[in-house]
Write a structure and sequence with these properties.
This protein has 7 helices and 11 strands. By secondary structure, the chain is an alpha/beta fold. Helix 1 crosses helix 2.
């Protein structure tokens, strides 16, 4: 989800706009950001029905559409939106797909703690993984960027989705990407810089790149090396 610390700064970037699109909407925090910014219309697109949370957003002004952004975004007329604001997956270890089989460290694999289920593994007995696949509880749908490690597949999907989003953005519209770098094999993978350059290659002008300190997960192989925070890239589609 968008970090709570980011809701204010992100709202500022779309203030004064009329209709915002989030192609990676998850549980739909884009609608709370739009409310905070005074943006009257917001559309989120989310591939996984369990996360799209559609019942919470009734009515024509705040909608969640279930589907692949690559397919759903082009169904809108070019120039429909005057803002795109989104947070893609970061291509980090959250994309791991394997099933955890090692026993939960808290309950030793029994799944119980005292008279109730172990709170850490929720009674499953296996260790917890902070991955999209584990959070969803099943294999991710095809084309889910959350299941892609940093690499050509990740870049191809995101480049293609940014391109369709640019085509439904009106000239003068703002395009905001919230992302984060990560550490792989002891070195920083500059995912944010790739997204910034990709937006430039699609013809957008970069207005601002803001670094924001957030609480990042500290467990995992590189817990002692975590990158400090997240970035907000603010770009504009030029007038023809
Ligand atoms: C980093 S999360 C965004 C979370 C969101 N900002 C929130 O506040 O809940 C990325 C989301 O994009 C979704 N996603 C990944 N690939 C997608 C695709 N091709 N089309 C639509 N949604 C996709 C994932 O299922 C995941 O929920």
């Amino acid at each position: 989800m968008f970090s709570r610390e980011l809701i204010g700064p992100l709202a500022t970037t779309i203030s004064g706009r009329s209709w915002v699109l989030d192609p990676f909407a998850g549980t739909g925090r884009i609608h709370a950001i739009a409310e905070a910014a005074g943006v009257p219309r917001s559309t989120g697109i989310e591939l996984e029905p369990e996360w799209a949370n559609t019942d919470t957003f009734p009515g024509p002004d705040r909608t969640q559409v279930v589907g692949d952004a690559l397919v759903v975004v082009p169904t809108f007329t070019p120039g429909t939106f005057d803002a795109v604001l989104t947070s893609p997956a970061y291509g980090n270890r959250m994309a791991d797909k394997h099933e955890a089989k090692d026993p939960c460290k808290s309950c030793g694999g029994s799944g119980v703690a005292g008279a109730s289920d172990c709170r850490v593994c929720k009674g499953r007995g296996v260790s917890r993984r902070n991955t999209y696949r584990h959070r969803l509880g099943r294999v991710l749908s095809a084309n889910n960027g959350g299941g892609m490690q940093w690499g050509p597949e990740y870049r191809d999907l995101h480049r293609a989705i940014w391109a369709v989003c640019v085509s439904v953005l009106a000239p003068g519209g703002v395009f905001v990407v919230n992302c984060s770098n990560h550490i792989r094999l002891g070195a920083v993978v500059d995912v944010c810089d790739w997204h910034r350059r990709c937006l430039e290659e699609l013809g957008l002008g970069i207005d601002d790149v803001v670094n924001v300190e957030t609480r990042r997960q500290r467990h995992g192989a590189n817990g002692h090396l975590r990158v400090a925070g997240e970035q907000i890239i603010v770009a504009t589609k030029p007038a023809p």
